[in-house]
Amino acid sequence: MSAPDWIAIAPESALVDGGAGIRFDLRLKLPRGPEPATGFVVRHRGRVFGWLNQCRHVPVELDWVPGQFFDSAGLNLLCSVHGAAYAPDSGICISGPCARDRLQPVTVEIRDGIIGWIPRGSLLPPTTTTTSHD
């Protein structure tokens, strides 16, 4: 069985600009073998962006509550542990201990009103496909 080339996440209408993001399962290819991880999608200035849910300073998930990635103004993505702030459109760390490092992007594509992600590079499909709309 071949790996899927696009995995549905949620309807495009489920994302609001600067609002809650949507988490989804994936696997991260590491030297010791693939490990379960999560990605997320958010809407910023009308566009959808996808990222690996992992701070670049220390590999912890960014959201302090599932799906809560933005600061209170809905402008930047924040790490719940260290307070690192990332630009939602480029993933570049704009303040905090990650100093200009960048979140790992997840390629997203909208097909017929559905947001999906494309497995490539070190981002692999999950063993089972699920999404979380928390």
3D structure, described in words:
With 134 residues, the chain is mostly beta strands. The chain has one domain (7-127): 3-layer Sandwich (Rieske Iron-sulfur Protein), CATH 2.102.10.10. It is built from no helices and eleven strands. The strands form three sheets. Strands 2, 3, 4, 10 and 11 form a five-stranded antiparallel beta sheet that branches. Strand 6 (85-86) and strand 7 (93-95) form a beta hairpin. The radius of gyration is 14 Å and the shape is globular. The mean pLDDT is 92.
How does the major sheet shape up? 5 strands, antiparallel
Kindly give the count of domains. Answer: 1
Report the count of strand segments: 11
Please give the CATH architecture.
3-layer Sandwich
Percent helix, as a range, is under 10%
The low-pLDDT segments are none
Instruction: Write the element-wise H/E pattern from the N-terminal end onward.
Output: EEEEEEEEEEE
Q: Give the CATH level 1 class.
A: Mainly Beta
Compact summary:
By secondary structure, the protein is mostly beta strands. The chain has one domain: 3-layer Sandwich (Rieske Iron-sulfur Protein), CATH 2.102.10.10.
